[in-house]
Amino acid sequence: MSTEQKAKLKALQAFLTENGMSYFSPFKSKKHDVKASLYVPKHRIIVKMSEGEVKDTEFFLKVKYVYRPLFIRESETAEFIVEKMQNLIVDIMKRKQAGFERRMKKQR
Q1: pTM above the 0.85 mark?
Q2: DSSP-derived pairing of the beta strands 68-72 and 45-49
Q3: What is the CATH number that goes with domain 3-107?
Q4: What is the C-alpha to C-alpha distance for residues 38 and 13, in angstroms, rounded to an integer?
Q5: Nearest Cα to Cα of residue 35 among 51, 14, 53
Q6: CB 46 within 8 A of CB 27
Q7: CA dist list (Å): 34 to 3, 28, 37, 48, 62
Q8: What is the pLDDT along the chain (108 residues), one digit of tens a residue?
Q9: DSSP β-bridge partners for residue 36
């Protein structure tokens, strides 16, 4: 991992710490045979440094039913990566809220 990638990861960790979200860095799951740079258990977000399109696609197909992958690419800035994380968290929260509202509607 290059120093630029480490700086991007540190910016992401600072964002998560600032917002009071717990995370594991690095992350290794024996059950699903997955290694990643960062894992946010509350939303099951797994952050991985991009290793090329083929490897990224293989990784995505492997984890898409268990985790929500977020890739950090070389061309992206730290601010953009934080914004991607924010958008992913908002999307997850919207889906959870929609599911909750459906369940409440069924109960009535």
Answers
A1: no
A2: parallel
A3: 3.40.960.10
A4: 8
A5: 51
A6: yes
A7: 23, 6, 10, 10, 9
A8: 678 888 999 999 999 999 999 998 888 877 777 888 899 999 999 999 888 899 989 989 988 898 999 999 889 999 999 999 999 999 999 999 999 999 999 887
A9: 27
